[in-house]
C-alpha cells in the first residue's frame, strides 16, 4: 500500500507533529504542596523542548473540587488554586511559545462539576425549569418514579442516574459529581463557544475535546435500555452504532460549529477528539469541516503482534486519508496502564485483575516490557501523522501497580465497590532527580506515593546515558524531523512476525516474532536501533530505522 499527500504551511504544523501530554497534577510541583502546578510546568518546559516535541497538551487545570482529577470543572475560565492562577497560565503560554512549543488545553464539554453554579441553580429550581434544562433531568420509572429512567451504566461503575430530593433523576456518564450537560439547550451551546473564545483569545493553539463522542443523547421517551452495552472500559468503542448516548450523529453539529470558531483565528487553531468509537466511525470526526485529529485508541490497545499492528495501521491510514487527514498514534495516556507494563504481560491479560493483584498475577516480564516499549517508540514515531507521548514514557516508566489501597484517589475505586483500582498507577508524579523528598517533583512530597527506586528512572539518572530511554527518545525525535514533510507510506516485503515499511525515505523494521531475523541486504544507511543490533540481524522485540536516501 502506498499513500501520499503533501504538507502545507505552518497552519498544518499538526499533521506530523509530536505532542507531549502533561498530566498537570503529576508533572512538576513548584510550591511544595505535593500537587503539580502551572509554575512547575513552566519551570520544566525546557525538558519537553529538549526532547524534541512540537507541542504540549495540558490536562484540566480549571477550578474543580477534584472528584475526578480535575475533569469535574466548576469554573471553565479560571485556574484552580492548587494549580496556580491565570497569570501563571499566561507565563506558561509565553514560555512555551518562546521555546517553540504549541499549547493545547483540555476542554470538558460533556459534563461539569456538581459544584458548578449552574448545577446549584438547577437543584434549587423546580422540575421543568430553564435551570434544569441545562442538564439531563428526568422523571423516574415506576408508579412513584422511584426507579431510574433507564438501565444505562456509568463508566465509573453503577448507574448513570442519581435521584435528587424532589424525586427527579439527573444523568452522569461518569461520577455523580459530574452531571451531564444538555447539548440540545442553546445556553449550553453558547456558553461553550464563549469558553473556547476565552482561551483562544489568551493565545492557546488548540483543544483536546474530552468525551467528544458523548455530548449528544437520544432522550426520546421512553428511554431505551442498553442491557449493559454502555459499560465497556474507558476509551473502548460502544457496541454497535445506534447507542442512546455514545457516538450520536448529532454530535457532529457541535464539532462543525467549533471548527468554524477555530478557523476564525490566524493561523487557525486545532482540535483533537477523544472519541472512543469504532475504527470505521473515527474518520467522521476529522472530516474537513470538523476536527483536525482524533485519538487512535485501536492502536493504543493493539497487542504485541505484527498482524494486529499491520491491520490497525492500514485501517488507521485508510480512514484518515479518506477525509484528508492523518492518524494520531498513541501508546499510553492518563487513563490506561502504561504500555511498558502492558507489553510485559502475557497476551490477553486482564489488566483490571492484574492491578487488583498489585501486579503479581500474572508476573510481568519486565525486561521484555522494556524491549518492547523501546521498539514500540520507534515504530510509532516512524508512522505518518501525529504522535502523542504521555509524560514519563520517555523515561521508560512502568505502571505502579502496587499503590496502597488507602492512597487511591481515582473515583472508580469507591464507585465499583473496591473492585477496580482505577488509573492512579499511571499518574504517579514524575521523577526528575535521583533523590530528594519527591525525586525532584517538588520541594515537598507527592500526592500519590512514589515507589522505592523511582529516582533511577529520573531525567537526572538517564541524561547522557546512551542506552537510556530518555536518550533514545531524544535521538529519535531529532532524527524524525529530518523525515517530516513527506507523508507517503509503503509496506515493504517482510517475514512472519515482522513489520517493514517506508515513510518517505525513512525505513522502519520491527521484529515482533520472538526469534532473530536476518536484516535483508540494503543500501539504506543505519540510523537508530531500539536495542543492541549488529545491523546484520534484527533481534526479537527490536526496531531499527534506516535512511533509504542517505543525505
Characterization of the model:
The strands form 5 sheets. Strands 12-11-10-6-3-2-14-13 form an 8-stranded parallel β-sheet. A 6-stranded antiparallel β-sheet has the order 1-15-16-17-21-19, covered by helices on one side. It folds into 3 domains: 386 residues, TIM Barrel; 55 residues, Oligo-1,6-glucosidase, Domain 2 (Oligo-1,6-glucosidase, domain 2); 62 residues, Golgi alpha-mannosidase II (Immunoglobulin-like, Sandwich). 25% of the residues lie in helices and 15% in strands. The chain has 551 residues and is an alpha/beta fold. Strand 15 and strand 16 form a beta hairpin. The N terminus is likely disordered. It contains 14 helices and 21 strands.
Amino acid at each position: 500500500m502506498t499513500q501520499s499527500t503533501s504538507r502545507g504551511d505552518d497552519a498544518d504544523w499538526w499533521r506530523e507533529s509530536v505532542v507531549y501530554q502533561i498530566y498537570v497534577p503529576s508533572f512538576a510541583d513548584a510550591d511544595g504542596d505535593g500537587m503539580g502546578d502551572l509554575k512547575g510546568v513552566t519551570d520544566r518546559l525546557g525538558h519537553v523542548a529538549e526532547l524534541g516535541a512540537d507541542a504540549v497538551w495540558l490536562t484540566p487545570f480549571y477550578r474543580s473540587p477534584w472528584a475526578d482529577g480535575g475533569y469535574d470543572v466548576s469554573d471553565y475560565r479560571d485556574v484552580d488554586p492548587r494549580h496556580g492562577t491565570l497569570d501563571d497560565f499566561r507565563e506558561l503560554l509565553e514560555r512555551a511559545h518562546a521555546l517553540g512549543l504549541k499549547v493545547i488545553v483540555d476542554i470538558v464539554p460533556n459534563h461539569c462539576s456538581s459544584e458548578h453554579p449552574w448545577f446549584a441553580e438547577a437543584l434549587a429550581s423546580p422540575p421543568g425549569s430553564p435551570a434544569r434544562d441545562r442538564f439531563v433531568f428526568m422523571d423516574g420509572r415506576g408508579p412513584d418514579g422511584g426507579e431510574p429512567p433507564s438501565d444505562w451504566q456509568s463508566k465509573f461503575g453503577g448507574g448513570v442516574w442519581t435521584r435528587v430530593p424532589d424525586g427527579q433523576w439527573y444523568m452522569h456518564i461518569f461520577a455523580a459529581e459530574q452531571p451531564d450537560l444538555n447539548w440540545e439547550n442553546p445556553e449550553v451551546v453558547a456558553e461553550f463557544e464563549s469558553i473556547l473564545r476565552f482561551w483562544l483569545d489568551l493565545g492557546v493553539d488548540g483543544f483536546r475535546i474530552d468525551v467528544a463522542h458523548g455530548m449528544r443523547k437520544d432522550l426520546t421517551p421512553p428511554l431505551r435500555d442498553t442491557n449493559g452495552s454502555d459499560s465497556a472500559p474507558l476509551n473502548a468503542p460502544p457496541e454497535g452504532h445506534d447507542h442512546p448516548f455514545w457516538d450520536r450523529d448529532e454530535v457532529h453539529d457541535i464539532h462543525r460549529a467549533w471548527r468554524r470558531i477555530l478557523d476564525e483565528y490566524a493561523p487557525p487553531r486545532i482540535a483533537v477528539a477523544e472519541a472512543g468509537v469504532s475504527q470505521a466511525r473515527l474518520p467522521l470526526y476529522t472530516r474537513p469541516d470538523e476536527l483536525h485529529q482524533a485519538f487512535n485508541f485501536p492502536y493504543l490497545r493493539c497487542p504485541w503482534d505484527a498482524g494486529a499492528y499491520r491491520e490497525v495501521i492500514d485501517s488507521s491510514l485508510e480512514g484518515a486519508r479518506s477525509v484528508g487527514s492523518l492518524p494520531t498514534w498513541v501508546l499510553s495516556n492518563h487513563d490506561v496502564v502504561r504500555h511498558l507494563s502492558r507489553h510485559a504481560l502475557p497476551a490477553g491479560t486482564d489488566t483490571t485483575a492484574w492491578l487488583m493483584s498489585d501486579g503479581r498475577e500474572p508476573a510481568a516480564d519486565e525486561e521484555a516490557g522494556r524491549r518492547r516499549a523501546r521498539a514500540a517508540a520507534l515504530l510509532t514515531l516512524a508512522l505518518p501523522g501525529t504522535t502523542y507521548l504521555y509524560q514519563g514514557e520517555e523515561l521508560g516508566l512502568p505502571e505502579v501497580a502496587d499503590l496502597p489501597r488507602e492512597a487511591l484517589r481515582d473515583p472508580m475505586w469507591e464507585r465499583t465497590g473496591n473492585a477496580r483500582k482505577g488509573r492512579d498507577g499511571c499518574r504517579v508524579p514524575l521523577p526528575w532527580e535521583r533523590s530528594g523528598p519527591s525525586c525532584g517533583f517538588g520541594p515537598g512530597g507527592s500526592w500519590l506515593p512514589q515507589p522505592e527506586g523511582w529516582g533511577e528512572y529520573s531525567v537526572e539518572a538517564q541524561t547522557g546515558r546512551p542506552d537510556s530511554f530518555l536518550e533514545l527518545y531524544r535521538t529519535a525525535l531529532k532524527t524524525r524531523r529530518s523525515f517530516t514533510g513527506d507523508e507517503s507510506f509503503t509496506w515493504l516485503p517482510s517475514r512472519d512476525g515482522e513489520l517493514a515499511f517506508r515513510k518517505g525515505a525513512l525505513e522502519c523494521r520491527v521484529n515482533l516474532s520472538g526469534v532473530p531475523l536476518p536484516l535483508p541486504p540494503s543500501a539504506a544507511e543505519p540510523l537508530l536501533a531500539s536495542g543492541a543490533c549488529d545491523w546484520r540481524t534484527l533481534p526479537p522485540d527490536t526496531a531499527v530505522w534506516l535512511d533509504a536516501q542517505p543525505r
